[in-house]
Amino acid sequence: AALREGYEHFDPRAYLRNNYLPPRADFSSEEFVVPWKLRCLAETFASGEIRGRTLIDVGSGPTIYQLLSACDHFEEIVATDYLAVNREELGRWARGEPGAFDWSPFIQHVCKIEGRGEPWQDKERRLRQRLRRILPIDVHRPEPLGAPLRPPADALLSAFCLEAVSPDRAAFVRALAHVGNLLRPGGHALLLGALGESFYLAGPARLPVVPLEESDVREALAAAGFALRELRSYAMPPALRTGVDDVDGVFFAHAQK
Ligand code: SAH
């Protein structure tokens, strides 16, 4: 209930400013956190192993950076969020409306690291075409979308959501199992998330986060029925500890249901 109340004050623009503008979104060096996240995703999708009809992104928030490498490998991307304000922010970008957040530096950077010489506008157009559904979701329900996804997703992505909506590690494991219900057996799951974080800010909202260690991520994935393929982590450099949260680092996990 406290978490739900906290999210009522979540300000998408403040969240975007805190995490997706400099200093965190600085593309001049791979030492910064945003380029690190984009590289994890670009390298994982580059194998060509993760592909199919549908990819579902859980707790998309107001962001699309996490879909930039994914969108080349799926016919449809389903974005989801608990909050209408975030779904509206995403819709503005998907429709190319004025006032939408400018993701073009992210798109340009991903095209650069993917190294295929693709014009960034082509990737932008492809993601907009494939992002056809932006659905409400609640990961605390065994059926997070209110009904099963039919057919189930071929891949699942979730970035900075599950630990940011779970009061403790047990709730994190349950949430992971719930979102696993949206994925077909054998389907790939990619998780990005915060390590050692106890809160983050989004305007007037101060959201509690369950602090995780790498071992918690490993154990949670196993308990929720996933086989771990790869786990990487990033230590937040002092210059990026800006007071918008108390995050120690970031993990990236690739697992299979
Ligand atoms: N994926 C984005 C946003 C993460 S912020 C990124 O990578 O930055 C966490 C998100 O979880 C917010 O958008 C918030 O609205 C969403 N959220 C809050 N409660 C939720 C719930 N019960 N189920 C699913 N998502 C929830």
Structure characteristics:
alpha/beta, Rossmann fold, seven-stranded mixed beta sheet, binds S-adenosyl-L-homocysteine, SAM-dependent_MTases_sf, methyltransferase
Shape descriptor: globular
What is the residue-averaged pLDDT? Answer: 97
Structural classification: alpha/beta
Question: What's the N-to-C terminus distance?
Answer: 30 Å
Tally of discrete structural domains: 1
Concise synopsis of the structure shown:
Helix content is 33%, strand content 26%.
Task: Explain what the structure shows.
With 257 residues, the chain is an alpha/beta fold. The chain has one domain (1-256): Vaccinia Virus protein VP39 (Rossmann fold), CATH 3.40.50. The chain is 33% helix and 26% strand. The chain contains eight helices and nine strands. The chain has helices at residues 2-7, 12-20, 33-46, 84-94, 104-114, 120-130, 169-180, 214-223; strands at residues 52-58, 74-81, 131-136, 153-159, 183-195, 199-202, 205-208, 227-235, 249-256. The strands form two sheets. It has a seven-stranded mixed beta sheet, with helices on both faces. It has a two-stranded antiparallel ribbon with strand order 6-7. Strand 4, helix 7 (169-180) and strand 5 form a beta-alpha-beta unit. Helix 7 crosses helix 8 (214-223). The longest helix is centred in the N-terminal third of the chain and has 14 residues, at 33-46. The protein is globular. The mean pLDDT is 97. The structure holds S-adenosyl-L-homocysteine. The site of S-adenosyl-L-homocysteine has 21 residues, from loops. S-adenosyl-L-homocysteine binds at residues 7, 10, 19, 59-61, 63, 66, 81-83, 86, 137-140, 159-161, 164-165. GO terms for molecular function: phenylethanolamine N-methyltransferase activity.
